[in-house]
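Open question from group meeting: does this chain pack into something compact, or does most of it stay loose? Before anyone orders reagents, we agreed to write out a predicted structure and look at it together. Recording both the input and the output here so the notebook holds the full record.
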Amino acid sequence: MGFLDKLKEKGRGIVTSAKPEEGVEPKPASEVRQRMLAISGKGIEVTEDADGVIVSWSAKIASAGAGGADYEYLYRALRVGLDEPEHTATGIGLKTTTNAEVDAGRLSASKDWEKGQHIGSESVHVIAWLGPHHTEGGADESGYKFSWSDLREPVIDAVTGAGWTYKPKKV
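Structure tokens returned:
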């Protein structure tokens, strides 16, 4: 495998399309949805809306505050739109981080969000899983590593396994 082949494989679903294996006949959109709805894992939630399917990961994590208790809520998602006539699914990443800090009797909060084709990973100390299997603390998973590929790869497998092409959606 040459350098360009490795680069193309790393960019699969981020900068390049992911096509189904040769000979896999396209299934109806309802089957593509069902395949995505079956995606599961720690902090993973899959929901439907009129435009398609949202595969998300969320957790409450511990972080060091300047003068007191500090925590963040992380939400990472892929919004996948379905185009049945073209047998194509397009995905875009959604990233939200909500911070809350209690310091000297004051509460401060902020929220940041981004939309685009996200890559990479984050090592975090999870104190509660969010989503359908919500836990109130007790998770205590120090060093948990969230990776965008943990969301993207199961989506690509679901889409291409149904004979459809997955394409990164442009912002």
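Observations to bring back to the group:
Strands lie at 44-49, 52-62, 70-83, 88-103, 106-116, 121-129, 141-147, 165-168.
The longest strand covers residues 88-103.
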